[in-house]
């Protein structure tokens, strides 16, 4: 491809003066003359149905009350379970059959000064009883040998 210099171009001559009105007219015509497109798009039946379903679901709000009720029921259930665990642990401590406490009982004791004091006193009393039982058994064995 050969590009000719501007002075040899037959359509544009440097000597010809173009008025501003003519220049604006040519410029506007060049900007507005976009090629028109004749392409067509055909949507399948499935695509139309998906679009219709999307519009229907966008119009219908989500069913939140049922979910909220389920969450509230779950929270109540968890609360009751933790309360039962605290009561069971406290009963085991009081009867001397405690093998440890759950996290919910530890939290309860950390937040309740009276319950913590009673628990510490009960554990101290159990330790004293165990110590006295060991002493009695040991002295009984010693007396039998003697």
Task: Record the SSE blueprint.
Elements: H1 20-32, H2 45-59, H3 64-95, H4 103-111, H5 113-145
Helix pairs in contact: 3-4, 4-5
Please give a quick description of this structure:
This protein is mainly α.
Rg over alpha carbons: 46 Å
- Beta-sheet strand percentage? under 5%
Average pLDDT figure: 79
Order of helices and strands: HHHHH
Major beta sheet summary: none
What is the CA-CA span between the terminal residues? 128 Å
Overall outline: rod-shaped
Number of helices: 5
Low-confidence stretches: none
Q: Into which percent range does the helicity of residues fall?
A: 55-70%
Number of strands: 0
What structural class is derived from the secondary structure elements? mainly alpha
Structure notes:
The chain has a domain at 66-145. Helix 3 packs across helix 4 and helix 4 (103-111) crosses helix 5. 70% of the residues lie in helices and 0% in strands. The N and C termini lie far apart (128 Å). The chain has helices spanning 20-32, 45-59, 64-95, 103-111, 113-145.
Sum up the structure in keywords.
146 residues; 5 helices; mainly alpha; single chain
